[in-house]
Write a structure and sequence with these properties.
Order of helices and strands: EEHHEHEHHEHEHHEHH
Structural class: alpha/beta
Strand order of the largest sheet: 4-5-6-3-7
Number of helices: 10
Mean pLDDT: 81
Number of strands: 7
Largest sheet: 5 strands, parallel
Oligomer: single chain
Low-confidence stretches: 242-280
Length: about 280
């Protein structure tokens, strides 16, 4: 259905101090935003990830949410992004996706979501002669996006090639002052020999760039995935999935007596678990 103002032309006339001018119609902006949203590669499992649906439980989670809202409100600002790092299940990816959605919908930004290991896989596949896309065709939107979410940075096994490829992305975005949002389970200790540190996994140069181009937030809290397994077990009477990660009773070692009692009696009740949003990191 054509717009009632521009009748499908995507342009409208306005009066500026008695002078008639032609400008983009509001419907055009809506179309661009819808297109950008579809192209952003946001996984379906995060369709409900919004800043309003994030439920912080710890001071670090509340601080992360505050900074996420500030980023959206001030975007594009000075191009500085955020690094959310900490254990799994505390809402890092939820926040990153929510920020990406917000700047696309509210600011008309063009952005992309990439699990870092998936991005590296796509680049690596271009070395196969049967693949028509080139390395730069894969990387160009990543390098030029207004906002880039690099999810689960450091999950992939490091190598010289990995460090060089990620270094290209980080350094290019650093030089062009384009906002980058990173989530990671890596640590940033003073000991540079820690194999799970940003220093070892990314290299000195990329870590240094990230420190300058992003605000770092260590996010701590309850692992929502484990608590949801317990809640499901309490409702169904079945043991949670991934029993190898659980205690002898089929529950996480620190599960309270209330949850254990619910399983033993095979009764249903609602557990009031706190923490980050489900499906987040």
């Amino acid at each position: 259905m054509d717009c009632e103002i521009c009748h499908g032309t995507r342009w409208k006339t306005i009066d500026v101090d008695g002078v008639e001018k032609v400008v983009r119609c509001d419907c055009w902006r809506a179309i661009v935003q819808e297109r950008n949203f579809k192209e952003a590669r946001i996984p379906a499992k995060f369709k409900n990830a919004e800043l309003e649906t994030y439920r912080p439980d710890t001071d670090s989670q509340r601080d992360a949410l505050r900074l996420a809202k500030k980023f959206v409100a001030e975007f594009p600002g000075d191009g500085r992004g955020l690094v959310f790092y900490g254990p799994t299940g505390v809402g890092k990816t939820h926040l990153a996706v929510a920020m990406l959605k917000a700047v696309i919908q509210q600011k008309g930004a063009r952005g992309f979501f990439f699990v870092t290991s998936e991005l590296l896989r796509l680049v690596r596949e271009t070395y196969n002669r049967s693949v028509e896309e080139t390395e730069m065709e894969i990387l160009r939107p990543v390098l030029e996006a207004d906002v880039l979410v690099m999810d689960d940075l450091g999950f992939e096994k490091t190598s010289e090639w990995v460090q060089e490829t990620l270094g290209l992305v980080i350094n290019t975005r650093y030089n062009t002052k384009r906002a980058t949002i990173v989530t990671s389970n890596l640590r940033d200790p003073m000991d540079n020999t820690d194999m799970n540190s940003f220093m070892v996994q990314l290299g000195v140069r990329s870590r240094s760039r990230l420190i300058e181009m992003c605000q770092w937030v260590e996010v701590q809290g309850t692992d929502v995935r484990d608590t949801e397994r317990v809640a499901k077990a309490a409702r169904t009477g079945h043991l949670p999935e991934a029993p190898e990660r659980l205690g002898k009773k089929g529950l996480p070692p620190k599960t309270g007596g209330m949850a254990r009692a619910g399983l033993k009696e095979n009764r249903s009740f609602e557990l009031k678990w706190s923490g980050g949003k489900a499906g987040s990191k």
